[in-house]
Specification:
The complex is a heterodimer of chains A (600) and B (382).
Chain A lengths: L6 E8 L5 H11 L5 H18 L6 E8 L5 E8 L7 H9 L3 E7 L6 H12 L3 E7 L8 H12 L7 E2 L8 H11 L12 E10 L3 E10 L7 E4 L5 E3 L2 E5 L3 E4 L7 E5 L13 E4 L18 E7 L5 H14 L4 E7 L3 E8 L2 H13 L5 E3 L3 E2 L1 E5 L4 E4 L11 E16 L3 H10 L3 E8 L2 E9 H4 L3 H8 L5 E12 L1 E8 L2 E2 L5 E4 H18 L7 E7 L2 E8 L14 H16 L2 E4 L2 E4 H8 L5
Parallel strand pairs in A: 1-3, 1-4, 4-5, 5-6
Antiparallel strand pairs in A: 2-3, 7-8, 7-14, 8-13, 9-10, 9-14, 11-12, 11-13, 15-17, 15-18, 15-19, 16-17, 20-21, 20-22, 22-24, 22-25, 23-24, 26-27, 26-28, 26-29, 29-30, 31-32
Chain B lengths: L3 E8 L21 H18 L4 E9 L7 H14 L7 E6 L3 H4 L2 H7 L3 E7 L3 H6 L6 H14 L2 E8 L6 H12 L5 E6 L7 H8 L7 H17 L4 E3 L2 E3 L6 H7 L4 E4 L4 E6 L2 E7 L3 H11 L3 E6 L2 H12 L6 E2 H8 L3 H5 L3 H6 L3 E3 L3 E4 L1 H5 L1 H9 L1
Parallel strand pairs in B: 1-2, 1-9, 2-3, 3-4, 4-5, 5-6
Antiparallel strand pairs in B: 6-8, 7-8, 10-11, 11-12, 13-15, 14-15
The chains are: A alpha+beta (600), B alpha/beta (382).
Chain lengths: 600, 382
């Protein structure tokens, strides 16, 4: 057990590419966690594991030993948190395990939106924040300007900012000294009933579930019978340890310490992030504050392009869930796309990560339907249902009203692009809350309906700002909306995979865009094809794919037969991916492309 | 098993390669014609052993440019066919020819050698289009060659290519009228298509030219049907038009899915033997074929048996190109089953849609169906 006064727990807050990982590596190296040779071997290895575990989803901790200039030896616990808004809750739990944060800002790039959201979270968590200006060795570095920006935009005193170059190792000492000097030591009582915060967990093929914890009160040691206060599950502690970054078992973990435990836990779903671990025999009076069960925010259908891959998709999803309890899936059947799964995610990035892992690691070729948010549908009979899938929308006569989730979005953008960004937000039913300038950059805060954001908002944001805008958001409650179910009909049959819930004011525009797009995607056939967008029985947009006027090989003689027959065979193969709509066959690729379409 | 068969003889050489052509044609500085003649005769002899006792329906010299052969080479081959199987006066013997003055000057020789039908690659009736198509003749030469062919051969046909860049319905109508004025009993009218691996494929991909859109292509096709119907040369196949009785018997063998023997580099064949129907394919490279024949007596690269599904597909692919359609009897003879059993529920929508007709004797693609035969086949054979 380490003396509380000699412990410092900290997180690193940084925008992507601002040097968080490089700084972490330097800190580990300076504190002798690994020698130079191991640095290469060890850190890379753990990155592989990290990748297996789901990249940005999981928190990681490293325990550093540092002998400070004051002559005392300190234990510094670094928590590396996922930095993305989709994992805001996970980040908040990581932050709750520390007393302070390093705010790493690129000295030429300045503050970005993602940094902002995280730093506000850290401030809310009561953190002491140490600004660190990285890459000061670069010619484009403007530490003074960035220091001012931190003060203006975030409102933090940046006079004591530590100027470093993580890449060259410049002034890493300065960072370590600041941690010791400026961060408060943790508080806690070793004799009080056990209270440990569950930070994160992952599945290890050899050890089972490994759980990261921060001890607040009491002591964790092997043999202890623990109880998860939210789930009520009990387990017997097998081992406790710390990462240096190698995993090392220790006899016990006391107050203020951060480390891991194993206790024969079968799946990560049993380890709720933010749960409080206590002792079965001596229960804590109340759990640590801030626990929330994880709720998926964005849903979409995932379907294998090749129907034969359905079981493979099921097994792959189950494997991923072993390690990431934050996404959900349940079987879904679509007329257009066949058998697949309706999956729930923490946000769009989370959706992308899972989709990419399914494609890359499990070699699946997938079609994803348009992301949908969770609507609260208040029925006329007084009950409320949560709508995850547009096709489950009840008959409008049974609906009293519908609520949709809103977000508070923060966008930082060079002022040249501000006009386009404002126009985009307005077009998406946004309500401006704030508009401030810091130098040549504007910070806008908008309230936006989430369903407008899940629909290609990032792409449009990037394109109208040429990639210069940074964006972050947090959920901001539910509000009633004038929402309708927009169906796309092909020769009168609704295409379930293309159904979306939209605001009435946008329905016509979206419906028209979808029809126009499909018109270009569906090849001409023997029969005319009518594509319609409809709300209930009312058609609001219509396009026609004209029947083929001519489609024939000009020349076909003896020698050609074999070749043409092979072409025909290929065509037959392709038709396995066609879906029948009345007399019309629609290539799956048309749905795929329609689902990927942009707004305009 | 039908006892007659057609003979296709491939002469793989051209003076120059036309940019739209993806046939097995090659340009060579010198050709040892005596050697080539001997090789073709040798391959013919080799085939004769397995096809003894059958009757020749037609002979076709294709290419490449077979009119570049010496008439004596054609004559030697025809003499050998006659000695092996017999060639009576009714056998259609066609020579593909380019309408250049050099080739036209040999028409008399070819006629004397036994050719009774000429098929000229006229392709267009204006000089700018002929240059675009990379042809070695001009409009004047083409007209002269057609005139000569009419004089020397009992029957003749020529090819035209439409849907060229910038061509509209009016321009095509007047060109086609122009062509009709000098037509014999047969005309082949093809749409310009871009084939992979050709010079046009790269030029088209680069955007050097654009083709008329699908609507215009459709209109050009319809114009062709209308004009040639009026002129008494209706389409008997998608791209082939004839006065009644003027149909190419050789090509009808292909479309009716009869047997044909392929001789020469890259030639294909369909031959029914005791074991069933085979697809044969010769070595494509002229030199490789020549060496193989000299070593083994034949230039065959493979002979594959065709299973029932493949025969069904090929028969439908070919037969529905013909206005006459496919008779129930021939279909049953080839596949052992009837249309309803083989095609099942796929027939009804195509019949209802007006693309096919089926009665007691024949399955036929309608005019609308033939114009969209790719899509019809795709629906029918999925």
């Amino acid at each position: 057990m380490t003396d509380l006064r000699h412990i410092r727990n900290f997180a690193i807050i940084a925008h992507i590419d601002h040097g968080k990982s490089t700084l972490a590596d330097r800190l580990i190296q300076t504190c002798g966690g690994l020698d130079l040779r191991e640095m290469r071997a060890q850190v890379l290895d753990s990155m592989d594991i990290e990748r297996e575990r789901g990249i940005t989803i999981k928190a990681q901790t490293v325990r550093l030993a540092y002998k400070a200039k004051n002559g005392e030896s300190y234990v510094l616990n670094l928590i590396d948190t996922p930095g993305h808004v989709d994992f805001a809750y996970e980040v908040s739990r990581s932050l709750a395990a520390c007393e302070g944060s390093l705010l790493v800002v690129d000295a030429s790039q300045g503050v970005e939106a993602q940094t902002l959201a995280n730093v506000y979270q850290a401030i809310d968590a009561g953190h002491e924040i140490v600004p660190v200006l990285n890459k000061v060795d670069l010619p484009a570095a403007e530490p003074q300007r960035v220091r001012e920006q931190i003060e203006e935009v975030i409102g933090l005193d940046a006079s004591g900012a530590v100027e470093i170059s993580a890449k060259t190792g410049l002034n890493i000492e300065g960072v370590l000294e600041a941690l010791v000097e400026r961060l408060p030591p943790p508080v806690g009582d070793a004799d009080a009933p056990l209270k440990a915060l569950l930070i994160d967990s992952w599945y290890d093929a050899y050890l089972g579930v490994i759980t990261l914890v921060r001890v607040k009160d009491g002591v964790l040691k092997p043999g202890l019978k623990i109880r998860m206060m939210a789930t009520g599950a009990t387990h017997t502690l097998e081992r406790v340890g710390v990462f240096t970054p190698k995993g090392v078992t220790v006899p016990e973990l006391g107050p203020g310490e951060i480390g891991f435990l194993t206790a024969g836990i079968k799946t990560v779903a049993d380890c709720k992030i933010g749960d409080t671990i206590t002792e079965e025999k001596r229960l804590a009076a109340e759990p640590l504050p801030g626990f929330k069960p994880v709720q998926p925010v964005v849903f979409c259908g995932l379907f294998p392009t090749d129907a034969a891959d359905f079981e493979k998709l099921r097994d792959s999803l189950a494997k991923l869930r072993l390690n990431d309890a934050s996404f959900e899936f349940e079987p879904e059947t679509s007329v257009a796309l066949g058998f697949g799964y309706r999956c729930g995610f923490l946000g769009l990035l989370h959706l992308e990560i899972i989709q990419e892992r399914l494609t890359r690691e499990f070699d699946l070729d997938l079609i994803a339907t348009a992301p949908s948010v969770v609507y609260h549908i208040h029925l006329t009979n007084g009950s409320m249902m949560m709508l995850h899938n547009p096709v489950d929308m009840p008959d409008p006569v049974r609906i009293d009203h519908m609520d949709e989730p809103w977000i508070k979005a923060t966008i930082l953008v060079p002022d040249d692009y501000l006009g386009s960004i404002l126009a985009l937000c307005e077009e998406r039913r946004g309500i401006q809350k704030e508009l401030t300038y810091a130098g040549k950059r504007a910070m806008v805060v908008y309230r936006l309906p989430l369903n407008e954001v899940v629909f290609d908002f990032y792409d449009r944001l990037k394109s109208v700002s040429r990639g210069y805008a940074s964006f972050d958001y947090q959920l901001d409650g539910y509000e009633e909306g004038d929402l309708v179910l927009l169906n796309i009909l092909v020769n009168g049959d609704p295409v379930d995979a293309l159904a979306i819930v939209v605001h009435r004011a946008n329905a016509e525009r979206r419906g028209r865009a979808l029809c126009e797009r499909l018109k270009d995607l569906i090849p001409r056939q023997l029969f005319l094809i009518a594509i319609q967008a409809a709300i209930g029985g009312k058609v609001i947009a219509r396009e026609t794919v004209k029947a083929l006027r001519k489609d024939v090989l000009a020349k076909c003689y003896g020698g050609d037969i074999s070749r043409k027959r092979k072409l025909l065979d290929k065509q037959k193969e392709g038709r396995k991916r066609m879906r029948q709509y009345g007399k019309v066959e629609i290539p799956q690729s048309a749905f795929l492309a329609a689902l990927k379409m942009g707004d305009e | 098993m039908s006892d007659s068969f057609a003979v296709y003889i491939h002469w793989p050489f051209c003076k120059s390669k036309c940019p739209y052509c993806d046939f097995n044609s090659h340009v060579r500085d010198t050709i040892d014609e005596a050697r080539w003649r001997a090789a073709l005769l040798a391959e013919l002899d080799h085939a004769a052993d397995t096809l003894a006792g059958r009757r020749i329906e037609s002979v076709f010299f294709g290419g490449g440019t077979p009119s570049l052969m010496a008439p004596e080479t054609a004559g030697a081959l025809l003499d050998r066919l006659a000695s092996r199987w017999g060639l009576d006066d009714k056998v259609e013997i066609t020579l593909e020819a380019n309408p250049t003055s050099v080739e036209a000057s040999r028409f008399a020789g070819f006629r004397a050698a036994g050719i009774n039908r000429a098929s000229l690659g006229v392709q267009a009736l204006d000089d700018a289009s002929l240059r675009f198509l990379g042809r070695g003749h001009d409009n004047q030469q083409a007209r002269a060659a057609v005139g000569l062919a009419a004089r020397h051969f009992p029957r003749y046909s020529f090819d035209l290519i439409y849907a060229r860049p910038g061509q509209d319905v009016d321009a095509w109508r007047s060109e086609l009228r122009d062509g009709l004025a000098m037509a014999g009993d047969h005309l082949s009218v093809y749409q310009l298509t871009i084939e992979t691996g050709t010079a046009f494929a790269s030029a088209y991909a680069r955007g050097d030219f654009v083709l008329p859109d699908e609507e215009t292509q459709g209109a050009l096709y319809e114009t062709t049907q209308e004009l040639l119907d009026e002129a008494g040369l209706p389409a008997y196949e998608i791209s082939n038009h004839a006065r009644p009785g003027g149909e190419s018997r050789h090509n009808l063998v292909y479309w009716r899915y009869g047997d044909y023997l392929g001789l020469g580099p890259g030639a294909h064949g369909r031959l029914t033997r005791a074991e069933g129907k085979f697809a044969t394919r010769n070595l494509r490279s002229p030199e490789a074929w020549l060496k193989a024949v000299e070593a083994n007596g034949h230039g065959s690269e493979e002979e594959l048996p065709l299973n029932a599904d493949e025969r069904r597909d090929e028969m439908l692919m070919m037969g529905l190109r013909l206005r006459e359609g496919i008779s129930r009897a021939r279909f049953a003879g080839e596949t052992g089953r009837d249309f309803e059993t083989v095609l099942g529920s796929r027939l009804a929508p195509l019949i209802e849609g007006g693309f096919l007709t089926l009665d007691e004797t024949v399955l036929r693609a309608t005019d609308a169906g033939r114009q969209r035969l790719n899509a019809v086949l795709a629906s029918l054979l999925a």
